[in-house]
Amino acid sequence: MLLTERLELVPITLPFVEAAMESDRCRLEQLVNAPLPRRWHGRALIERAFPASLTDIRADPEARLWGDRLMILRSRDRRIVGSVIFHGRPGPDGIAEVGYGVEDESQGLGYATEAVACSLRWALEQPGVRAVQATTFQWHRASLRVIEKCKMVRVGSREHEMLGELTIFELRK
Question: How far is it, in rounded angstroms, from Cα 66 to Cα 79?
Fold first, then answer.
């Protein structure tokens, strides 16, 4: 677990992913000892966050869930407010890719910046990691603000097959 001023960043485990795929809200909350957001998108959100199949995740959970964490408030109002998701353990190029999201009612409060900054520090301390990248759309102001606050720099772009151009940002050791 990683700690920030206001958050616990709790590792996402295989049992958590399995319970999410089964839409077992009660089990999910028991696994992390914190309530889910009232509006939780269930399996659809998990499938978007984890592009690998459940079979692939089960085959190598350590590699596939590498660095993935839930954002849980440390206050009396202990609850899940979002997640930071890496796209698996970095390959031979040493580049990790990170994504993040905060539930609707907790957006705009700095939780993403706090969690992503901590997760970036953690990732860059791991053996074999030389950089962390994040991608977003130029119109996604909130995501761009998190990236800017985390001191990531623009390194390029790539096309998304359905949504257009994604801008790539990076933070190096």
Answer: 22
**Full pLDDT tens readout for the chain, 173 residues:** 999 999 999 999 999 999 988 889 999 999 999 999 887 765 665 666 556 688 889 999 999 999 999 999 999 999 999 999 999 999 999 999 999 999 999 999 999 999 999 999 999 999 999 999 999 998 899 999 999 999 999 999 998 888 789 999 999 99
**CATH code at position 161:** 3.40.630.30
Domain residue limits at 112 = 2-172
Our count of domains for the chain comes to 1
Q: Quick check: 82 and 101 in contact, CB under 8 A?
A: yes
**β-strands 153-160, 69-73 pairing:** unpaired
Distance CA(111)–CA(69), nearest Å, equals: 13
In the numeric block, which tokens belong to residue 144? 């761009």
- Amino acid at position 20, single letter: A
Please name every residue paired with 86 in a beta bridge, in sequence order, or none if there are none: 98
pTM attached to this predicted model: 0.91
Strand order in the sheet with 7-11: 2-3, 7-11, 69-73, 80-86, 95-102, 131-136, 164-172, 153-160
